[in-house]
Amino acid sequence: MNRNVVVIDDEQSVRDVVRGYLENDGFVVFTAEDGREGLALTARVKPALVVLDLMLPDVSGEDICRDIRTRSDVPILMLTAKASEDNRIDGLGLGADDYLTKPFSPRELVARVHAVLRRTQGGEVPLVEVLSFGEGELEIDTVQHEVRRGGAPVDLTPNEYKLLVTLARFPGRVYTRYELVTHVQGFDFDGDERTIDAHVKNLRKKIEPDPRRPRYVLTVVGSGYRLAKTHGR
Predict the structure, then answer these.
(1) 106, 76 contact by CB (below 8 A)
(2) Do residues 99 and 54 touch, judged by C-beta distance below 8 A?
(3) Model confidence band, residue 91 (pLDDT cutoffs 50, 70, 90)
């Protein structure tokens, strides 16, 4: 089943946090920072859903919505800083399937995405249930929100769990500290992004056989962190 989602928003912080939460929920996310790029991306990717900001720097979200509707019935979830009822009605009248006002809860956005897909596709997008690493030594159950090492449950904090799942969705991909902190803390976090180092240190203590020589969560000097596809690689 198609799990592609296109996110069109000119704010990097919004794109990053929406990508993080949707990827953690099993979606494959493509992002664009303006309307023209978003239209081209939507035509190429043929997503299951588009998340579209109403206020874009080059072309208005209304025009993008109209353009998409002339060629596709892909579900559209609109984001906007305009909170009035008239704006909501206008957005839905243009063909958007749902409407979310900024600032928003990332968890609510994920719930809205699933609700729109249920309404428009008559079913739910299946989630990946268990992610397995190290020949089954480390398992992450994304439905039950459980982590097991050698079959035994590992007690992680909510932030440690979100960090691990973010890395595990795309093993081998290098995430910057900024990307990770927005996934873990949210895009409105205004603290030091190096707080992610403390989360990594604590996570390693719980999932690594030897935290001083990590097998799973690896440091990429000058860049950030990645999860090894196989032990230490």
Answers:
(1) no
(2) no
(3) very low
User: What's the CA gap between 198 and 78, in Å, rounded?
Assistant: 35
Q: Which amino acid is at 166?
A: T
Q: Please check whether residue 133 is in contact with residue 218, taking contact to mean a CB–CB distance below 8 angstroms.
A: no
Name, in order, each residue with C-beta under 8 angstroms of 163's C-beta and a sequence gap of 6 or more.
Answer: 180, 183, 184, 196, 199, 200, 203
Give every CB contact of residue 83 below 8 A, 6+ residues apart in sequence: 101
Tell me how far apart the alpha carbons of residues 175 and 225 are, in angstroms, rounded to a whole number.
Answer: 5
175: three-class secondary structure by DSSP: strand
| Six-digit token string for 205 | 């203590």
pLDDT at 109: 92
Distance CA 123, CA 220 (A): 40
Asked if pLDDT for residue 230 goes beyond 80, the answer is no
Domains and CATH numbers, the chain: 4-121 (3.40.50.2300), 130-227 (1.10.10.10)
Q: One-letter amino acid identity for 176?
A: T
Cα–Cα nearest to 47, from 73, 26, 12 = 73
Tokens for 61? 């979200």
> Helix, strand, coil % (nearest 5) of the chain?
40, 20, 40
Angle (CA) 51-38-120 rounded to 5° is 40
pLDDT for res 69: 86
